[in-house]
Design brief:
Blueprint: H1 8-28, H2 33-68, H3 72-89, H4 97-123, H5 126-137
Helix pairs in contact: 1-2, 1-4, 2-3, 2-5, 3-4
Length: 138
């Protein structure tokens, strides 16, 4: 599905996030603490390098436009997902099979929600798209 220009960068970030989720899930299925540690370091680095900025962009631009359009439930779900992913990525036991699998499951579900529901909803609301397009021009 072709994404609007305003949402394309966020959608591209999702592809990388799904790749990391797959890596975390694969590592969690191995009985190798060294692999867990390597993947945990990669996840922590991605969190610092881009995921925090991705969440901030959604929370400062997309979600307020959705609130203005009366879509509080979708916003609440997104914020809850972000908080859960933040907590997992800062968990002191990130480098364990259980937390890596929890991250893999949560990130996969979150990306699917945003791509299949949240972004589709945003693109169906002209006021939301106008706000996002205006942000892109500022």
């Amino acid at each position: 599905m072709k994404r609007s220009a305003a949402l394309t960068p966020l959608s591209h970030d999702h592809h990388h996030a799904l790749s990391l989720a797959m890596q975390a899930g694969k590592a969690a299925r191995q009985d190798d603490p060294l692999v867990w540690q390597q993947v945990a370091v990669k996840l922590a680095q991605h969190y610092q390098d881009s995921l925090q900025a991705h969440f901030a962009q959604e929370e400062h631009h997309l979600l307020p436009a959705l609130i203005q359009a009366g879509q509080q439930a979708a916003v609440d779900r997104t914020l809850a997902d972000h908080a859960h992913l933040h907590a997992l990525l800062q968990h002191p036991e990130l480098a364990t099979a259980a937390i890596l699998q929890a991250f893999a499951d949560a990130m996969t579900a979150h990306v699917r929600f945003e791509e299949r529901e949240l972004f589709v909803l945003a693109e169906s609301l002209p006021a939301v798209m106008a706000a996002l397009n205006q942000y892109g021009k500022d």
